[in-house]
Amino acid sequence: MKLTLSNTFSTQLPADTNTINEPRQVLNACYSYVTPRIPSNPQLVSVTPQVVTLLGLINEDVLSKDFINVFSGVTIIANSKPYAMCYAGHQFGNWAGQLGDGRAINLGEVQHNNLRWAIQLKGAGRTPYSRTADGLAVLRSSVREYLCAEAMHHLGVPTTRSLSLITTGDAVLRDMLYNGNQAYEQGAVVCRVAQSFIRFGNFELFASHNDIASLRQLTNYTIKHFYPSIEVGTPQGYLQFFKAVCNATRTMIIHWQRVGFVHGVMNTDNMSVLGLTIDYGPYGWLESYDPNWTPNTTDSQHSRYRYGNQLNVGGWNLVQLANALYPLIENVEPLQQILDEYTEQCASDYITMMCRKLGLTYVTANDKLLINELELALQLIETDMTIFFRNLSNFKKEQTSENNNVINIIIDAFYIPTEITTNVQLAWVTWFKNYALRLQLETQTDTERKVAMNLTNPKYVLRNYMAQLAIDAAEKQDYTVIEELQLILQQPYSEQPQHQKWFAKRPEWARNKIGCSMLSCSS
Ligand code: AMP
Ligand code: MG
Questions:
Q1: Which of these is catalytic: 269, 279, 299, 384?
Q2: How many percent of the chain have pLDDT more than 90?
Q3: Are residues 169 and 228 in the same domain?
Q4: What is the per-residue pLDDT across 183-233, written as a single tens digit (0 to 9) for each?
Q5: What does the DSSP 8-state code read for residue 498?
Q6: Which pLDDT belongs to residue 515?
Q7: Residue-number span of the structural domain to which 156 is assigned
């Protein structure tokens, strides 16, 4: 197996001079060298062929012992000097100080086809940033990260990718719900891949130490490699960089809203400066449309990271990044202006995105109202977001809404059909009347609109119970559900009639089941 490494991060940025692997505060450094822990019995669970190809590897490599050894941490590839990145962050609205890669170990950057891919082993043991934790990951959370990152990629959402999922053969002690019930679970390592794993928190760390030289060095590095059209080293360039991060963040979160994804832990240490969805923990997909929903029980009191608040939180996090970059710019006004633009553009992008979901090719002044009324109607009774939007494309422009035929189009989206009262019917009939009127302004045929809508509204998403079924099987060494889901989720917008069973509302058994509706940060 041959990987061509070209390590820019660790060769162009300052290293921690201390190489002892014990928890500590690290100063004036972007990372610390650390060696992955050797697992006792690594076994390959799954690989993603597309990511194998991205890295310039071939099928034969995947079948080799070398592959398992390298991507579980047993052997270190030539020219790799593994390291953990140092970053800080705001967690749940509070400054948390230094955090860093507590269990992600970077092997380096693989160069292939003129692209560079940073590769990380998540769950590969303790680092100087592990604090009091063990540096490990359990199979449960690893299956979730492995499947979800790839599902997001195929949905068209910017994200880190997943190369491989390997069980370590070691038991890991976890208190899954933080309620005093500890139990051993199987350990696992996911190899994840991205152009870069740099987070808002990497910049916040240096700003908090008033280490402006390192801050400047990191920012120059990031601009040079990831925003190459921006000038390096001037306040104007730093402002453009900040603006570019705002744009990337907005684009990412608008996609989340489109597909009904709730990240669950939008702390600034989990915000990529490339606008990639990163750190899949207690995330979830909206099943019934509910803007107040968050899957993360750790956040249940304030629901800070609820579905309907993600664009706002993105803005709050960008304020923290603006504060961190301020010493390089020393001018509040243009930073504030860019933040204001973020807020304005979020509002207009949201409307444009929702219009697309409705099959509208342009935005009119009244569309905001149509969307607001839709959001209210969707909350009248439990209504499945994915099924609703997918089936909405069956609506015909000339269809009258006089009788119940409009309800029949969306009836499969309702969780409890007996809740469809006369009032609920009336609300939908009224909404469909307005929708039909709006569609009269469009020139697309019903068929054209359906094709366009079905490219925006996915048929298959990784519903929480689906991930849980994959986990339940994987814990018994049955990896067929992982394989099946990975296959379906590669084409989330296609009909795939042979997989129709996964185009279904959450089953009743999953309504309040741990892992399906409730997740904690324990992973
Ligand atoms: P997260 O909420 O998963 O993004 O994690 C927040 C911080 O805790 C990051 O610095 C992680 O590296 C660290 N962390 C989470 N779980 C572990 C673990 N099991 N061992 C060491 N560090 C961890
Ligand atoms: Mg994290």
A1: 269
A2: 94
A3: no
A4: 999 999 999 999 999 999 999 999 999 999 999 999 999 999 999 999 999
A5: G
A6: 87
A7: 9-200
Spatial contact of 479 and 447, defined as CB atoms under 8 Å apart: no
Annotation marks residue 349 as catalytic: no
In short, whether 33's Cβ falls inside 6 Å of ligand 1 is no
Rounded to the nearest whole angstrom, what is the distance from the C-alpha of residue 97 to the centroid of ligand 1?
13
**Is residue 403 scored above 70 in pLDDT?**
no
- What is the domain count for the chain? 3
Split at pLDDT 50, 70, 90, the class of 401 is low
For ligand 1, atom 20, which residue shows the shortest CA distance?
135
Confirm or reject: Cβ of 265 under 6 Å from ligand 1.
yes
User: Is 133's C-beta closer than 6 angstroms to any atom of ligand 1?
Assistant: yes
Q: Where do runs of H (alpha helix) occur along 27-111?
A: 49-54, 59-63, 65-70
User: Which pLDDT belongs to residue 99?
Assistant: 98
| Residue 191 and residue 227 in one domain | no
Confirm whether 508 is domain-assigned.
no
Extract the tokens encoding 56: 């310039």
Between CA 57 and CA 463 the distance in angstroms is 31
What pLDDT is attached to residue 91?
98
Query: Looking at the domain assignment, is residue 466 inside a domain?
Result: no
Using the atom order of ligand 1, give the atom closest to the CA of residue 87. Answer: 10
Residue 61 in domain: yes
Last residue of a domain, one of 418, 434, 454: 454
Q: Which ligand is nearest to the CA of 100?
A: 1
Same domain, 256 and 320: yes
Distance between CA atoms of residues 518 and 520, nearest Å: 7
pTM, to two decimals? 0.98
Regarding the beta carbon of 169 and ligand 1, being less than 6 Å apart is answered: no
The alpha carbon of 66 is separated from its chain's Cα centroid by a whole number of angstroms, namely 30
